[in-house]
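Q&A log
Question type: sequence-to-structure
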Amino acid sequence: MVKRNFIAWSLAISSILSCGLPMSAQSATASGDKEEIAKAKVAIEHKDYSTALKLLTPLAEQQGLRPAQYHLALMYLEGQGVAKDPKKAAELFKKAADQGGKHAAYNLGLLYAQGRGVPQNFNKAFEIFKKVADEGDADAQYNVGLLYLSGQGVKQNSEEAAKYFGLATAQGQVDAEYNQALLYLYGKDQTDRSKAFKILQKLANNGFVPAQSNFGLMYLRGDTVPKDAKTAATWITKAANSGSLEAQYNLGVMYHNGAGVPKDEKLSLTWLQKAADKGYPDAQFNIGLKYEKGNDVPKDATLAKQWFKKAADQGDKEAKQKIASLEGGAQTQVQTPK
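Response status: OK
Response body:
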């Protein structure tokens, strides 16, 4: 399925912590104040948060300097030298954004999307991201694409999503390029699947884990390429070993079915368990089936129900049906890879 989570959000917050000040912010600050902010940044890098806090607080709150507001907001957001306070972070980001701070505006958009420090408001998040995206920021372009794709804060529009993914991809935003490939893969135009294959192949060879998983699935299904379960297993195993829950789940199913790998119920359980323990609902459902049927584990109806409930609590319809019908003896088969 097309990825709809806002992965760029968490990546952007962490990367911005170590980025330099925007040139516009620097030029708007007196040289003496710039030195104080530079000292604060060095202090943050050395985890001397008390010094950074002493330097940044008066510059941000008394003098209203945009770079100080921005970096102090990050400290409150991450709990560096102060108790975590997303509300305070949002206030400081807004002050910096109102002075033209692009990075501050972007992070304010994240907080509105996440509902951290401010009420969750996708309309506001979209408005902010769109403004920053149209100024050329790749991460903002990616998130605008995701909001168009999911229809959060704006009317769903796959064409606009593709447009913004394309803009971000042109700047090297890998998550956007990956989503662009998935739009090609699952779109209505069957001729676009070859484009998806080429993009996923490139990303997979470059070590991008989600692409490795989906590239393997193309071989497993014979999508654009001849079916090749062994090649599929190679790529899906790479992704599974790198922590992809979807790949771990699919590899568990492949060992159950003997698809591209020897049939091995113990390894099937191992991989399903890895994904299930991390909260992947399809894996939780299949673990429940194993305990229900006694496939390489002691038959245990109580544990089976517990795993079915974990999946059902995440909205898995088959798990809900299974719980409802379990006493009646209804049979459900192990799912096939997605």
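Response note: The chain is about 70% helix and 0% strand.
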